[in-house]
Amino acid sequence: MVNPSFNIGQQIGAFQAKNMRENEIKGRESQDVNAIEQILAEAQATNDPKVLQNTMGKILSQVSPERQPQAVKMIENMMQNIDAKQKEAQGRQTAEQAGYTYGAPSAVQAQEVKNRDKQQYLQQYGLGGGVPQQQGQMQDQPMGGQAKSEQMQQQPNQMQGMPQQQGQQQQKRFPQDYSDQELISLQGAPYREISEPAKAALQQRQAEAKAAKSAFEPESEKLEAKRVSELATEVEKEYKAAATEELRLDRMVKLDKEGNVSSGALIKVMDTLGLPIGVLSNPSTEEFRKLETDFIRDVSKVFPGGRITNYEIQSYMRTIPSLMNSPEGRKEIIRNRKLMNEAKKVRYEEYKQILKENNGRKPPNLGLLLDERTQDKLLDIEDRFVEGIEKNIEKSQVPLRMYDPQGNALAIPPKDVERALKAGARFQ
Question: Are residue 71 and residue 198 in the same domain, yes or no?
Answer without folding.
Answer: no
